[in-house]
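INTERNAL AUDIT FORM
Audit reference: QA-55
Scope: verify that the stored structure record matches its stored sequence.
Auditor: D.O.
Record contents follow.
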Amino acid sequence: MLRAGKHVLCEKPLALTREDITEIVKVADESNAKFMVGQICRFTPAFEKAKELIDSGVLGELYFVESEYAHDYMLIQEPWRCDPLRHGVIGGGCHAIDLIRWLAGDPQEVFAYGTHRLLPHVTYDDATVAIMKFNENLMGKVFVSTGCKRDYTMRTVLYGSKGTIIVDNTSPTFTLFLDDEETFTFGGKITGLGGKSIQHLIPVKINNHNVTEEHKQHIAGLLKNEDRAAIERDFPLMPAWVQVLIMKLYE
């Protein structure tokens, strides 16, 4: 589709093999079409708020970050989930990896271990842990388990010099701890801390697969960089929900 000049929104993962990834990147660079990989965690309200707090300096300097993709595949045995190429890290763990990269940057060094003890119907490791070094002062960890006995979650912990965030994608609040000398403004109130770290519960909307916002982002990019006439030319061929989004963006 890229070779034909068609814009593409590719759902994660980008591909299942290194060779395919290399080819897609090459064609995307050569094409005049717009290309986006959908990484849903970047549009999850709780993670968006965590990113906002990090960027504003509330946590100070990050020194350790960790995320996990915990999802029991024992009762989810569709053939595509059992494909040997669709390793748990590629199929679901890529969410946690992309989230950490979005929040902390790209790691410089990575090593990993894996075990296969829980899922007899797959051939890949059903539990892995990756240790990452981002720079001299920042390290990280990503844990992936597709056989764990617990509810689905992407629990993430972000440790900074001034505070800590404990956040996931399925809860109506996340937890913020702040240094005893810091103040935090939330809901119009400034909270002063007196002698110890204080726990703040930050309310957020639950939307762990915010596909609508993902598509809006892609369409907004097209509208920003493309001639409006080109969008309007193809408008009748677009699905109804895309037409609605575009009309709202034109308002």
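Auditor finding: record pair retrieved intact. The chain has seven helices and twelve strands.
Action required: none
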